[in-house]
Amino acid sequence: IEELMLREFVHPMPSVDEQEDATPVLRKEKLLKIDSECIMLTQPMRNLHTNPKDLRITQAPTGLFPTYCFRQESGNFLLSFDYGAEAIVRNRIASFQKRIIPLELSIAFGDHLVATAKIEALNTFTPTDGDFKPTSDMQSHKDHELASDLVKVAAGVIAGNLKTSVQPIYPQSAKDRHVSGTVEMSAVIGTDGQIHKLRLLHYDDADLALSAIYAVRQWKYSPYLLNGEAVSVDTTIKVIYNLN
Questions:
Q1: Pick from 82, 77, 104: which is nearest to 92 by CA?
Q2: Alpha carbon of 186 to those of 92, 202, 213, 233: distances in Å?
Q3: pLDDT tens, position by position, 130-161
Q4: For the segment 177-204, what is each residue's pLDDT rounded down to a tens digit?
Q5: pTM of whole model > 0.85?
Q6: How is residue 213 annotated by DSSP?
Q7: How far apart are the C-alpha atoms of 141 and 181, rounded to whole Å?
Q8: φ and ψ at residue 209, rounded to 5 degrees
């Protein structure tokens, strides 16, 4: 949570891998009783059973893919959603050195508020070379999660840590077309057991993929322990849809 808060204060924009192959979809929403314009970075959806410009992708629930919302009136950054069902709200903003920055943030997973943070003061100073030299009492700190920092865990192993799951709903459109298949996703599960990143690896049908993402992003796990310490893991999750 601390790393997520720091990232949202310092660099709240999407990562390179979230932008890769993504298609921005603009929609207008009323969020927190505020008229907003949201940009959702939808992933490419292969194997569409109709025209590739099928509007079902743009009608996916807001926040199913990484989504960034701005106040329609001022254009100021309001909140963002991510695959892990987390919502980051900018409760208060200010202008500092000709930049708009958040002063207060809150993070919610689903309907639960899990953390708040605020900036107490903003000051300027003239740095010297000595300011960039670490002292002996300093510890390294990652300001974002690198792929090399993750522990790869097999799908069958991490499945044993699943505490809460939401059963995917078999889309009626897929049933009507007698479609079955598998949706495979890569997932980053944080030390808190929440899914912080979800990306499609393979799917047999776009409707099934949307259903799987919507359900799996709400799953919760017991923290994975390595040598007695909770670590973030990189794993895969499969959802199988079978009409029989």
A1: 104
A2: 34, 10, 11, 10
A3: 888 888 877 665 444 445 578 999 999 999 99
A4: 999 999 999 999 988 898 888 888 888 8
A5: no
A6: H
A7: 42
A8: -65, -45
